[in-house]
Design brief:
This protein has 172 residues and is α/β, with parallel strands linked by helices. The chain is 30% helix and 28% strand. The strands form two sheets. A five-stranded mixed beta sheet has the order 2-1-5-6-7, sandwiched between helices. A two-stranded antiparallel sheet has the order 3-4. A hairpin with a 2-residue loop joins strand 3 and strand 4. The structure holds zinc ion (ZN) (2 copies). Residues 89, 91, 114-115, 117-118 line the site of one zinc ion (ZN). Zn(2+) binds at residues 89, 115, 118. Its cofactor is Zn(2+).
């Protein structure tokens, strides 16, 4: 991007979501999210343990193992996956720290495509648009279908590049 080119609003707010992600202490996945009404920033959040509780950097990740149906070379297979379940997800924290009336008709910018639980909560939160960057394949079809049924705009920014330095800091 040339120096004189002004950032568009999508880039601006997704950049701020990435900045929020740098606060996360989970080394396995660092996610940031912001709430935007019109062009006004109304909240920011990242994934983390509840306040006053040791986080992943202090207590280590809390690993849960589960089997997940995945398409491997055109075949559906059960694949064992590990996830950290210590943290409240960024989207959930965003909902905990914003008001319902602020969320009505608002947009959520989030670094990663929401998981099923977050998508379900966002669908009932009053927001009317979700913009994400990194894909998250688990339950993706279900999430996309949910947003369609609910009439929530669900889109990704394909040509978006996170701020230099930030992505090094939060990469998995
Ligand atoms: Zn963790
Ligand atoms: Zn989630």
């Amino acid at each position: 991007m040339s120096k004189n080119k002004r950032k568009d609003w999508d880039t601006y707010f997704l950049d701020i979501a990435y900045m929020a992600a740098t606060r996360s202490q989970c080394p396995r996945r660092r996610v940031g999210a912001v709430l935007v009404q019109g062009k006004k920033l109304l909240g920011s959040a990242y994934n983390g343990a509840p306040m006053g509780v040791p986080d992943c950097s202090e207590a280590g990740c809390m690993i849960a193992e589960e089997y997940e149906l995945q398409n491997v070379d055109g075949k559906d297979e059960m694949v064992k996956k590990q996830r950290c379940i210590r943290t409240i997800h960024a989207e959930q924290n965003l909902l905990l720290f914003t008001d319902r009336k602020d969320r009505e008709g608002s947009t959520v910018y989030v670094t990663d495509q929401p998981c099923w639980t977050c998508a379900n909560m966002l669908a009932n939160s009053g927001v009317s648009e979700i913009v994400y960057h990194r894909p998250y394949t688990k339950d993706s079809d279900k999430v996309i279908n949910l947003m369609e049924v609910r009439g929530i705009v669900f889109r990704t920014l394909e040509h978006y590049q996170p701020p230099k330095g930030v992505i090094d800091e939060i990469k998995e």
